[in-house]
Every structure is written in C-alpha cells, then in structure tokens.
Amino acid sequence: MAVKQTKKLNDSSVTDVTTVNSTDRILMRDSSGKLIPISLANLKAAMMGGVDQNVQMDGVFIMYHRKQDDYPVMVKPHKWPSLQSGGEVADGVAIVEGGKILIVAPTESSMTWSSAAVSGGGVTTSDRVTALNDWAGKANTTAQITHAECSSNAYAPGYCANYSRVNANSKGLTAGKWWLPSLGEMMMIYANMTKINYALSLISGATQLAEAAYWTSTEYSATYAWGLYLFNGAGGIPKASGTHHVRPVSAFIA
After folding, report:
1. H or E segment at 129?
2. How far apart are CA 108 and CA 86, in angstroms?
3. Which residue range(s) make up the domain with 86?
4. Between 193-201 and 183-191, two packed helices, what is the crossing angle to 10 degrees?
5. Positive or negative, the Cα torsion across 101, 104, 105, 106?
6. pLDDT, tens digit, 9 for 90 and up, residues 161-207
7. What is the total count of domains within the chain?
C-alpha cells in the first residue's frame, strides 16, 4: 500500500504575511477533498455571507477627481476597484457625518509638531471639552505655517499644508488644499476608523490608520499640542520632542 508523504514546514523558512494582494490565492479544500485556490474577493464574499456592505459603509466614500474632466466625485467603496483599474486616482476617503464632510488622505508620515516651542496661532486651550469642539483645523494650520518653527515638510502643520494628491492630469487636491486636522476633526476620524481603514484597503498604495498617537492642529500651549491616541483618548504632547503620526485632511472641493 502506498504511503502518503507529507512535508513539515520549517518555521524559519516561512515569511509572515500582513497583507493579501488581489492577485494572491488562498488554498481551500472542497467537499471532495480537492485543494482549490480562492481569490481574496471570493473569500471576502463568502465570509460576509448575506451582509450588505453598502449599509455597513454608510457615510464613507472614496473621493477622486475624474480624469476625463477633472470633476470631483465621491463613490461608495465597492465601486472603487473598477474605477481604479480604469486609471482613476483616489484623493482620499470621505467621511460624511453630522453635517460635516472630511477627506482623509490615503497616506501619512511621522514627525514632530515643530522644531521648538511656538504659539502657532491655532485654537489654544488646556480644557479638554473646548479642545474636542475645535473644528477649525484649516484656519489653525493656515496660521501655524506662518511660523518658521512649523512651516516646513519636516513638521506636522507644514507637511499637511504641502501634501498633494493628483490624477493623471495633475489635477485634484493639490498643496494648499490640505491641513492638519483639529482635535474635533481627528475625533471624527477615530469614530469611523474601521470603515475608513476598509476604504483605504481598496486604494492602491494607501496606508491604514494605526492604533497610535496622531498630532492635531489644536494647541495646548506654546510647548504642547493636543494629540489623539487612536486607542485610548486625547492629551497634550510636547511639540518639539514627540514624534507621532500625521494624517492630512481636506474638503470635498475642486
């Protein structure tokens, strides 16, 4: 009788996988015992069962400037893969909530808020409630980048002000249309983090939000700015010594 040969994998030869590409296949065994490859899309569909993803993703869209006429458009996430395959480039993920629309950039960086202590001119408060009600991220950033200590790409306000996302025609949300989110705006992102990360997973080259500290444009004092920890809350962080995540935001504009 033939003996079935098996091979034991050496753990040291196996590479941990943190992402699955659309072209990757996962082996599954069918009812007859045969191994069959299944695509990521089909695996998602099977796992979701009868769940309507459109309902689950209410309030979250992907924004892009249509390459045929550079017109700004927002679409449901499930429509994005085919548009991206056709050459469209995402500006970012749009959140629509409480009468506000915020565009979250597909990528981010890590840096200090400034090179030294500076009163940047943004909303400044040590009161948590007042800080959480700050929605003036654009005005905050506009004032802050007038100071050399935080105007360059090496610091949070300058990085956001100079951020750019363009389509094949170099049109879109260019530099000057982005800003460092206020604490209120960052809380809006935190409240929709899971849905935003799903939408980001559909955008080529995008980076998902991390459970980490993110800078905001709401200032605590000349020495500190408010940061939001995407796992346990907000607090003041030293502007010139804390290296934390920075995620630019924008508006649904041409």
Report:
1. helix 128-132
2. 25
3. 60-250
4. 70
5. negative
6. 999 999 999 999 999 999 999 999 999 999 999 999 999 999 999 99
7. 1
Residue type, 194: T
Nearest to 78, CA basis, from 38, 39, 43, 45:
45
The DSSP element (H or E) to which 42 belongs, if any, is: helix 40-48
Provide, rounded to the nearest whole percent, the portion of the chain with pLDDT above 70: 86
Give the integer Cα–Cα distance in Å for 45 and 77.
Answer: 15
pLDDT digits (tens, 9 = 90+) for 7-66: 565 656 666 665 666 677 888 788 788 888 888 777 766 766 655 555 556 899 999 999
Quote the strand ranges of the chain, DSSP E. Answer: 25-29, 35-39, 60-65, 72-75, 90-97, 100-104, 109-111, 165-166, 172-173, 213-219, 224-229, 233-238, 244-246, 249-250
Residue 102 lies in a domain: yes
Q: Is position 29 within any domain?
A: no
